[in-house]
């Protein structure tokens, strides 16, 4: 039978091991339209896309693992075509990603923030498809000009759709104001008004609100000099 000291040591080792594992992430991926051996990269660099972790597709699936200290925006993309990509938030847990060359088919799920991001992506894609459908509806014979009534109807429908999307963006930002998705939506120029962005900043946790970009944005908003 182990002694009390041995038991304490084992317990301490277990706690230490669990702590070391708490920053581990796993990407469980599905690769639609990929061949075995195709390479997939992960990066946190949105500008140059320098690969940080890579893997290959096997039987339509891929897996990426590593460590992350905090929630971080990242991308997985095809080595053959960087346009085939999916953005998501890297967290120390298991995240499910579907990567597809079909527009709007790539998806992410598995955490609160990534589920919210996917729902927002779906809304933005639906808005884009609505614009395309309206464009097709407005098609005329070559040289023909839409009537004023047709133009006004298109503008009305587009405005209503755009307002629905911006309401969804604002709601998502409010519900995620304590994490990186809320931070991203607050700092991005996405249709949220200056007053709404100031309200979001006021709702941020103190540590996030002290970030230089937030402090600069808040000062600009108060001066009314945002772009």
Q: What is the element string, with H for helices and E for strands?
A: HEEEEEEEEHHHHHH
- The number of distinct β-strands equals 8
**Rg of Cα set:** 23 Å
Q: How much β-strand is present in the residues?
A: 15-25%
The order of strands across the largest sheet is 4-1-7-8
Q: Give the N-to-C terminal Cα separation.
A: 71 Å
Taking pLDDT < 50 over at least 5 consecutive residues as the criterion, the unreliable ranges are 1-21
Kindly report the average pLDDT value: 86
Number of helices, counting only DSSP H or I runs of 4 residues or more: 7
| Proportion of helical residues | 40-55%
Largest sheet: 4 strands, mixed
Shape: flat
Structural class: alpha+beta
Q: In brief, what are we looking at here?
A:
With 227 residues, the protein is α+β, with helices and mostly antiparallel strands. The chain has seven helices and eight strands. It is 47% helix and 20% strand.
Structure commentary:
Mean pLDDT is about 85; it is low at about 1-20. Helices cover about 45% and strands about 20% of the residues. The longest helix has 28 residues, at about 150-175. The radius of gyration is 23 Å and the shape is flat. By secondary structure, it is an alpha+beta fold. The strands form two sheets. It has a four-stranded mixed β-sheet. Strands 3-2-5-6 form a four-stranded antiparallel β-sheet. The chain has helices spanning about 5-20, 110-135, 150-175, 180-185, 195-205, 205-210, 210-225; strands at about 25-30, 40-45, 55, 60-65, 70-80, 85-90, 95-100, 105-110. Strand 7 and strand 8 (about 105-110) form a beta hairpin.
